[in-house]
Design a protein that fits this description.
single chain, about 250 residues, alpha/beta, 2-enoyl-CoA Hydratase, Chain A, domain 1, six-stranded mixed β-sheet, two-stranded parallel sheet, about 50% helix, globular
């Protein structure tokens, strides 16, 4: 893993594993977001891959969300929209992928990390996988990831996360709301469960899985346009004095 982070795709048997990494708690700068979307599309188009596992590197945080350094560097609306469109691209790549994507969440997930966990088709996590949508605390709001989180957890749970932006919710809470399908006491047992499910799905009918995925995502065909509009909202808000000062305060803690 270099200072800019990385995204890799490895194929073993019929399982494609996508791993993203960044030295700052697997945060998500624009380059990583764009590469993630491209890699999901690459795995979707690879005929050797029947099922996809999406994971992050290391044993601590799953994903710290948007890169604060990159947020502070945004100085016009177009840059802001472009950055937040990266989250839209990842969510839409997951949505359009005809193959099931299994999420593997080993630790805390913030903001865009919660969005990513919501955009996969089946998410497994450890008991250390606390979640938080912290966007409102820095003057933005979870606008781009919101549709994915709301689809997975329901309006009430999404609103609770979005409004109480400074409080961590436990992995058990996230499981009870449908974000996680099952929890495990440690990474070893998580990885075993992910592997077992992936192996089982890899032997299942690709056509049946594709149809089931299509049905499960019904009603989201307008997300290409919707998420880009949401990216524009976030792109405008990130330019505010409130957000600039709030991010600087978070960075200094």
């Amino acid at each position: 893993m270099d200072d800019q982070g990385a995204v890799t795709l490895s194929v073993a048997g019929k399982i494609g594993t996508i791993e993203f990494s960044h030295p700052k708690s697997n945060s998500l700068p624009g380059a990583i977001l764009n590469k993630l979307a491209e890699t999901i599309e690459q795995a979707a188009n690879n005929s050797d891959v029947k099922v996809i596992v999406l994971k992050s590197a290391g044993e601590k945080a799953f994903c710290a969300g948007a890169s604060f350094d990159e947020l502070l560097a945004i100085d016009n609306l177009e840059q802001g929209k472009e950055f937040f469109s990266g989250f839209a691209k990842v969510i839409n790549a997951c949505r359009k992928c005809p193959k099931f994507i299994i999420g593997r969440v080993q630790g805390k997930a913030v903001g865009g990390g919660v969005g990513m966990a919501s955009a996969v088709d089946y998410c497994l996590a450890t008991e250390a996988a606390f979640v938080k949508l912290s966007e409102l605390a820095i003057g933005i709001g979870p606008f781009v990831v919101g549709p994915a989180v709301e689809r997975k957890m329901g309006t009430a749970a999404f609103t609770q996360l979005a409004i109480d932006a400074t409080t961590w919710k436990s992995a058990e809470w996230a499981e009870s709301k449908g974000l996680f399908s099952e929890l495990f006491p440690d990474i070893s047992s998580l990885d075993k469960a992910v592997s077992n499910l992936a192996e089982t799905l890899a032997q299942s009918s690709p056509q049946a899985m594709e149809e089931l995925k299509r049905i499960s995502w019904e009603g989201t065909n307008g997300w290409d346009e919707l998420l880009m509009k949401r990216a524009e909202i976030s792109g405008a808000l990130v330019l505010s004095d409130f957000t600039t000062k709030a991010i600087a305060k978070f960075k200094s803690q």
